[in-house]
Amino acid sequence: MRIAIIGTGYVGLVAGACFADLGNSVVCVDVDAKKIASLRKGIIPIYEPGLEGVVKKNIAEKRISFTTDSAKAMKDSEIIFIAVGTPQSANGEADLKYVFKAAETIAKNLNSEKIVVIKSTVPVGTTRKITALIKKISGKSVPVVSNPEFLREGSAVKDFLEPDRVVIGSENAKAGEAVKSLYAPLNCEILITGAESSELIKYASNAFLATKISFINEVANLSEKAGADVSEVAKGMGLDARIGKHFLNAGCGYGGSCFPKDVKALQHISKKAGYDFRILREVEKVNSAQKTVPFEKLRKEFGSLKGKKIAVLGLSFKPNTDDMREASSVEIIGSLVKAKANVVAVDPVAWKNAEEIIKGVKFSDSAYEAAEGADAIVLATEWNEFLELDFAALGRKMKSKIIVDGRNVYDREKLTSLGFKYIGIGR
Ligand code: NAD
Predict the structure, then answer these.
(1) Does the C-beta of 102 come closer than 6 Å to ligand 1?
(2) Domain boundary among 231, 254, 287
């Protein structure tokens, strides 16, 4: 099929590259001319494992192209995906201005029968609103289908090609089937629902995962007071098939471009529908408090942090991405800087993006260099390279061997035997 993707960010680029790889002819559109120019040269603007290979292969095989000319891209396509951002607006609602703008452009360029697919995460009712908007501008009835995306940054290509499920919300059976056929080569369940259900599945899934994280963080905080070890508790809970072991890792809170904004947006969706989704307020509160835990542990350890050298390992909101949106490291480092600590921040990839938002710290690309003379190390993001450190060598460089494991990934016994004071979360 001939596909246009409006918005070539994390989701649009991955979806475009993967649809091309499945044999479709894809044109990715973006308003960001710089991004499009580098993509044309095969330079990927984001760090995402495996993506570069898929993009380059499909450029070479002429199945994917990149443009800023949205009108032409739309005219040449049968299916148009909207994959623009839906950031949080000032009051916490999803800001739909980019989605509406994309829909307007589509409405002005309807030269043949098209199917519009909303891949962006949008509030319940948006698919119907976009259908009406396109009709109002163009005078034509165009099927608009909801098809939320569930990929995770850091494993986006794999997630797109091997999803747990694909959800397609459509009021038009023929359009729903056409979108379904795009995913037919993938070995997964394809669920067809109404548009509203599809839109809500996305928010409910993200909010549930965020709830699971905040829940285990509450258990971690209780474990500390009650003398339990949350790692053991989580393992025991996770062995119950009804609970499952995923997303039961206590730590210094969730971040990223989706969970914080989607939890907030779902509360607004609920409010507008006349329902108070109470539990989500607490999920947010627990998460904000959790981001301060590593700092509080250091403060408890040192009293004043003035002049203390602290190495912070991992800056991106999670490993294998350069995305700094809502990263816990920002909160941790912000508090340390305010307390006049000397911070050296380390990240193998995200340091470039981090430099733009974190001020008053030194950056390093080596944990060993950062540890030189350090009073403590804080692990904020569990990149693989921080899991495989030579702790004996690291310890020799430090002034005092204190480690705050913000992700509960280190072996407490091993570190203790090397003379470290190990401080985990809920352990
Ligand atoms: P992003 O900010 O990385 O990319 C959005 C892109 O859209 C940008 O490149 C921007 O320049 C472009 N854009 C904006 N308006 C445009 C227009 N009118 N025409 C063409 N391009 C335009 O965003 P993202 O992370 O890819 O997220 C996109 C959507 O997918 C959001 O709704 C998000 O909630 C959802 N989502 C994201 C993820 C994720 O992990 N990032 C996962 C699932 C769903």
Answers:
(1) yes
(2) 287
